[in-house]
What we know:
- The chain is an alpha+beta fold.
- The protein contains 11 helices and 12 strands.
Amino acid sequence: MASRPSNLETVKLTLEILKRIPRNRSISAPELHTQLLAAGMDRSRRTIERQLESLLTQFDIDCDISSKPYGYRWKTQSKGLSLPALTAQESLLLTLAHHYLRNLLPATLMTSLDGFFQQARCNLAPYPDSKPETEWPSKVRVVGESQPLLPPVIAPEVFEAVSTALYLNRWLTLDYKNAAGKQAERHVMPLGLAQQGSRLYLVCRYDGYDNERSLAIHRILRAEVSGLGFTRPPEFSLQKYDDDGRFRFGEGQHISLSFSITRSVGQHLLESLLAKDQEVEDHGNYYAIRATVIDCARLDWWLNGFGEHVWDIKKEARRHAPQDPSPA
């Protein structure tokens, strides 16, 4: 027989439900059930429905019974729950975080915070007396450097499984179809999640191997979180994986790169450097540039993109990475 929840657990459940009841729209018991599960509160839907019925008699909450599932919201003149509400600044931060980070946070965490995202959006809705925070989202934008592409379709259940396994350090079983169309089942240790342009990649280790590889998440056809956990390899660093050029089809080989580029085309390299040790010689109508970079396929694509404006390209292998010239 299941044990009855303690008074403290009941109070915590009540507070979580009250925090998630909105003012400007209705929320149903199934929605609350999903949010609470994602927040780690495993209660049955019927328990939540009974709690809502009780709260209707104790708080200024409206229940829309015109259709099922019923919708719940605070009454128009109600002060709501006497807990700190989101400020305009907090609402702005949450709104921007939802827009730009939703693919870099665990799906369960995003679901558990859905009520707060909704509240933040309502707080920033335009009114005659709008605050500066209301206008800010329309004043900023992240702009891509390459031809914009629509993001490939990722099945929601796949992303949820991948992000959950990564979040909890659990093994992940997946069906993966590579770029050549070959499909296979893999048992992987998820180590990192990276967004490159419009694409998401899972950095992982295959079971039985000690090297890392990147899998395009949109090519994962099925993903299942294992009940088996793992200890995250202490030697692995997602930042180093990126610094080594692995997302640019490189193997971490540092080279001394030199080339000549016409002045009009290469001007931006005096403002956005290739590396901290970059050296530039001004020859009037062109620049001669030298810098230590990671050798990778994307470097070749970048250089080839300048066409006849770049020439005399030379690469010299380096055994060691350059030292940071900045003072300690």
